[in-house]
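Fig. S4 source data, part A: sequence.
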Amino acid sequence: MSSATSTRRDARRNHERLLTEARALFAERGIDAPLDELATRAGVGAGTVYRHFPNRAHLLREIYDDAIEMFERLAPEIADAPTGWRGIELLLERLSEWVAATPYLPDLMRRVAEDDPEHKPGLRFEEALEAVVARAKAEGSLRPDVEGVDLNMLVNMLGSIGRFGGDYLPYWRRQLAIVIDGLRARPDLELLPEPPQSFTEFHDMAHRQATGAPVGD
């Protein structure tokens, strides 16, 4: 193995270790935790941190974009689920669990929105969400007045359990079960009282809320 290959491999290993330790650090202390502490946790020098991430914004953006890639990896699994209803369950289970375990997510959204207001990769998932909703409706398993944007909101609601800290995480599936039961089609359903937002409206609202800007701006 050449020294150049070994150096590149060490650099990749350090990069992944820094990302892993950053997620753990931010979960404990928030996204403004000292980067010197990140270096200590990762077992590298401060200079190594800044070689990989010139500033905090670069680090936060990569963590954010890695999260978006997680959504992209999940999309085929949802599409390949044996039924549309199972696709709905997978979506809510996987994303709610992740959001609940990522208490720094609102602050991360806020900071990325401040740094680059036009960066909206989440909008790419509208089509996948609407597809699984349409499939479940066609089966007759999902109530007919639910839309993909409603599932987005439910993920955020379930994920907010994370603000109670790790002590509550073993119990979050109770709320998930209640939500899933409420989504089932039944002959005696009353229609939901309001029409849903568009996916774009929801996405923009979520980022405005994360930045602290008034919703009506």
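Fig. S4 source data, part B ends here. Residues 210-217 have pLDDT under 50 and may be disordered.
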